Amino acid sequence: MFKQLLVPKTLTTDIMKSKYGTFPEYHTSLDDLNFVTPKGLAESISIYRHIIELLEGAHRPRAKILGEPQLGRRGLYETLSRKGSASGSMLIRNILAYANGTRDLFELSEKLDAAIEQVEIAVDLLLEHELIE
User: Fold this and answer.
1) End-to-end Cα spacing for the chain
2) What's the mean pLDDT in 102-125?
3) Domain hosting residue 103, numbered range
4) What is the reported pTM?
């Protein structure tokens, strides 16, 4: 769960596994390491590592092709219409439209109202097919 506190020119975020106050021992003298499991600790470390990698990378994709590239021949566009099948190619097209080198993945995610993980996957595909840099 992310809790964001906006401070002038600063964004701070707390990352927690459970909502504040959801169990009686939360941040009291009864709070102890018996509640921490190796699996829970590994998941937390993985989340922090992923966030740090995203922040350090701060990739700002820029389209390499002017106009609309042929996504179909690259396997990035559905050839059969199925319910919900257009959402992936729509995200790819939207990323290409906004990939001008000024927005990072977080900004693209917010602008396109898409999960950061979806944006990452789409950007990786576009990089693989050399449509962005």
Assistant:
1) 32
2) 89
3) 72-128
4) 0.60
